[in-house]
Specification:
The protein is α+β, with helices and mostly antiparallel strands and about 400 residues long. It folds into three domains: about 110 residues, Uridine Diphospho-n-acetylenolpyruvylglucosamine Reductase, domain 3 (2-Layer Sandwich); about 80 residues, Alpha-Beta Plaits; about 130 residues, Vanillyl-alcohol Oxidase, Chain A, domain 3, CATH 3.40.462. The chain is built from eleven helices and 18 strands. It has an eight-stranded antiparallel sheet, covered by helices on one side. Strands 4-5-9-7-8 form a five-stranded antiparallel sheet, with helices on one face. Helix 6 packs across helix 8 and helix 8 runs antiparallel to helix 9. The chain is globular. It starts with 8 loop residues before the first strand and ends in a 10-residue tail after the last helix. Bound molecules: flavin-adenine dinucleotide (FAD).
């Protein structure tokens, strides 16, 4: 969460006082932001009220019989992973343990999603308050039952409709992970991507490209035979230097996906996440486009990275607001600039748009892991994330959040 100095004030409880207050400030736009993990630019900003759930929504409760876990909205994914490890269970968290409920609510693409599905696919119950202040408690439909629109909306578009205070999710058995990390070159990245596109679901590839290139493959060990198979696949991956193959006990213990440079904490950034199919014969063409974009990035901290979907993100899911079930790659564009550098910000945002325009042919979808209601491209990202389902979402919002307490859907 950035250290904005001109916020109006902070709320730490969701109750009737909060909604009365919001109603009393009724005007065209009620400037409320919600922070769960607090990792995005929309968790705090100047001239906004902040609802910070991190202090008072910290409970985790495990059902020993059903192996389900209830998670309150202030819990980070790292804390969830550590808590579940004690019960020999796991949850498909993303690449950082610092994210919070925002990770689950925006879909949640994990390095393990190819074998477990998205984070939203694990949700069994979801509780909170609609933007109009009424409470909700929704349950996953049984197999064969048609999903209610409200359920479908909350699985992937909840952040536009209400404040989520708690979810109940399924968990998975805790399994040892195999991690392969290495510095790679342009041609090696191309080869890694080609190999990954034919991998079994138990392996996934992520990579990052800025000043240099770094890749991280992650596999889940199910039994000895399968461990041998995924180890031999990892050994086939090309690399330039620093290749490390090691076993780790849970997602929290994995190395970070970064370029090894010192993170400049005074930098500000925006992130735009795209979604698209396997690159197949377009592989080299796409990488040359990215190379050109990387060469002209306006700031050393700008980069493009990607993670892999497929497998169970494509099938075996419940009806949700995540429209890009056929996606295989999620490249994300990180635009960064020094704090208070307005011209630098403009340049980085322009570069992000250029990246988007250049990659749209191969990544036609958007993953709204980060939302940008404060930027001119908000409408475009909504349309590309929700496609035709956006019309239904707007109808649901008109009923449950008519005053746009939550971020707008237009
Ligand atoms: C280092 C890093 C690694 C990441 N890796 C992955 C990854 O592997 N896979 C992936 O899918 N994503 C990944 N992300 C993206 C991340 O999951 C999303 O940006 C997510 O929204 C961040 O969660 P948060 O709890 O920190 O959100 P916050 O910054 O706290 O909130 C973001 C926005 O979400 C909404 N929101 C948050 N909590 C609630 C709530 N309880 N009720 C209603 N609305 C709410 C609000 O609109 C808020 O403005 C990563 C992000 C980072 C910073």
């Amino acid at each position: 969460m950035s250290n904005e100095s001109n916020i109006y004030g902070i709320f730490e409880e969701v109750n009737s006082n909060l909604f009365e207050f919001l109603r009393s400030t009724k005007n065209n736009s009620i400037p409320l932001l919600v922070a769960s993990g607090g990792t995005t630019s929309r968790a705090a900003a100047d001239n906004h009220w902040i609802l910070d759930l991190r202090k008072n929504y910290q409970n985790l409760s495990f059902d020993f019989e059903k192996k389900h876990v209830e998670i309150e909205a202030g819990v980070t994914m790292g804390d969830l992973s550590n808590f579940l490890s004690k019960h020999q269970r796991s949850f498909p968290i993303g690449l950082s343990g610092k994210t919070g409920m925002g990770y689950i609510l925006t879909g949640g693409i994990s390095p393990l999603s190819r074998s477990t599905g998205l984070a939203i696919d694990q949700i069994l119950e979801i509780e909170g308050f609609w933007g109009n202040g009424t409470k909700f408690h929704l349950f996953r439909p049984n197999k064969g039952q048609v999903s209610k629109s409200e359920w479908k909306a909350m699985c992937g578009a909840a952040i536009f409709l209400g404040i989520v205070t708690k979810v109940k999710v399924k968990t998975q058995p805790l399994r040892t992970l195999l991690s392969w990390t290495a510095n790679i070159s342009f041609s090696q990245l191309s080869e890694c991507i080609s190999q990954a596109e034919i991998w079994p679901n138990s392996l996934s590839l992520q990579w990052i490209w800025g000043e240099n290139m770094f890749a991280h493959a992650i596999g889940e060990i199910v039994n000895d035979d399968q461990e041998k198979k995924i180890t031999s696949l990892l050994e086939k991956l090309p690399f330039s230097s620093n290749r490390i193959i090691k076993k780790v006990k849970n997602m929290n213990s994995l190395p970070n996906l970064n370029l090894g440079e010192k993170v400049n904490l005074t930098n500000h950034s925006e992130v735009l996440s795209l979604l698209g199919p396997a690159w197949k014969e377009n592989n080299l063409h796409v990488l040359k486009i990215i190379q050109n974009l990387i060469n002209k990035r306006p700031n050393n901290s700008c980069y493009i990275a990607s993670q892999q979907l497929g497998g169970l993100t494509k099938s075996n899911y419940i009806d949700s607001s995540f429209q890009h079930r056929d996606a295989i790659w999620k490249p994300w564009i990180n635009g960064s600039w020094p704090a208070n550098d307005k011209a630098g910000r403009e340049k980085s945002l322009k570069w992000m748009e250029e990246c988007w325009n250049n990659l749209e042919f191969i990544c036609p979808g958007v993953h709204l892991a980060q939302i940008h209601p404060h930027l001119p491209w908000h409408q475009k990202e909504l349309s590309l994330a929700f496609k035709d389902w956006l019309t239904n979402l707007k109808e649901i919002k008109a009923i449950y959040d008519p005053d746009n307490i939550m971020p707008k859907l237009e």
